[in-house]
Design a protein that fits this description.
The complex is a heterodimer. Chain A is 68% helix and 0% strand. Chain A is mainly alpha-helical. In chain A, α6 crosses α8 and α9 packs antiparallel against α10. By secondary structure, chain B is mainly α. The chains are: A mainly alpha, B mainly alpha. Chains A and B meet through α1, α4, α5, α6 and α8 of A and α1, α3, α4, α5 and α6 of B.
Chain lengths: 309, 287
Amino acid sequence: MGGAPAPREPGPGGRVPPLHPSPWLSSPTLLLLAAGLVVPLALIFLDSFRLRGVYGGFTPIPDLWEHLASGAFLGNYRRATQGIYLLIFWRSLWIAALTTALCLLAAYPVAYWLAVMVRPSRRPLGLLLVVVPFWTSFVVRTFAWVWILRTEGLVNNVLLATGLADQPLHLLYNPFSVLLGLVYGELPFMILPIYAALERLDRSLLEASADLGAGPLTTFWRVTLPLTVPGVAAGVILVFVPSVGQFLISDMLGGARTMLAGNLIQNQFFGGRNQPFGFAVSFLLTALVLLILWAYTRLVKRGRLEDLL
Amino acid sequence: MTPSGEGVLPRTRTGVRPAVRATRATFAAYSVAIYAFLYAPIAVLVLFSFNAATQTAVWSGFTLRWYRELAADEAVWRAAWVSLEVAVATTVTATALGTAAAIGLRRTPPLVRRIATPLLVLPIVLPEIVMAVALLRVFGASGITLDFWTIWFAHVVFCVSYVVIVVQARLAGMDDALEEAAADLGATRWVAFWKVTLPQLWPAVLSSALLVLTLSIDDYVVTSFVAGVGNTTLPLQIYAMFRKHITPEINAICTLLLVATTAMILLAAVLQRTVRQPRLPRKGGPR
């Protein structure tokens, strides 16, 4: 790596080139990520073209050429693109998109209030209060909704006791409860980046806009919002990506009819025992997420994904 | 932005107009509602951890029974201990590796950067379950038995990027002139690093360590795949309890976690006050 120990003389700009430690410092981390992510991903990609064995492993491939020529290697992908599975993918994307939209709607005003309207000395407390709930356990927070929404749960008890309902409502195990759990779980990840962007915003620009005769809405639309797009974009990614692939919330709050891609994958390892199919679904899901992120970054910034994070 | 190019109007200092006050009140009310949404479920969980009823969410008297049961529940304590061990091991490793990487990547040749950036972004954009599946497969393929260290390895893999990103952000905001000044004053590369760069990095290192601790201690998805028998972490244990039957003991765990979290926040606040970034001497000040 070109870390040549340059003599410390003024560079072209007349500046002394700054000191820097060896670029080799990054190699352990990069090796770790290569060994812990790239190699495993390559492995499951190859395995996704194999077929399940009788007892949950893989069917041996006696003749590789035959396996390829007969098209058998695409078996898992053919299955994963059948109607019922496409529906699961579609549902995952749709719920994740809804979650992201709802989080954005809930988060922006809060972030704005915190960053612009709250006294600076009180902002750290306000932020802390956003973060504290998600420092308890994720499983427990999801459990809270089960406990509140289930048939003998809090909401139903209140409804029955007050006579607003004469029999328990089915509030749990439907798409609505999954959506609620997702929004609840991901909301802080939307508030924090938007807050960070708003706080970095140069207030004099807002004053300038007002001085030039723009009303509050115009100022928001033409100055504040465009300048906080990076924060919004980061929040959207931080909420959308985990929502698409999650399985815990839909497992705890959703019923059989709200199976999402994450549950489908998980089932192949703990229930269905069809690992190669699970790998194929994993790859389709990853491809889908990356494709959406790529399109999204093009749309938002004409920039690269890395710049948003 | 608005093309009213007649020049800047003189700025007038009007007090808080009623319209402004109304806007503020609206925003405040909205925010309070969102905060309520964030806290209400936790609050009722905590409240009902003291409830005498076994099954239903009807208040039927105060009890500490669930805490007594929790105290006697060895499986939960063992799981909590495993979680803590994993989290501490992960935090130390990921923070050290990530900070070193961020510093090393500061001025890398473009080629290295082109390889490093996607590698670092990958754990963040990859659906967690895919990561879990891949890690499980690679452990299986290489004949590694699932145990404490597989959890640790998996956690470092998905946490290290966050450290790099947080520390890199801090490095980007740092003034090179300080290091240059140190060099001009005769400091060697490493002295300058230890005495000038690193002290400025501490806040970022600390906050990324805290982030890693949180991510690791709370992880369910990856851990559920790579945890072997006998290495149940707390989230896995709680999930298992939830599946078996819903008991107010889970509410009691929630309360204890809240207490622990609050204690940790206070500790972090104290730490932050101690390890504050060094003030820059003012221009024309002493020395």
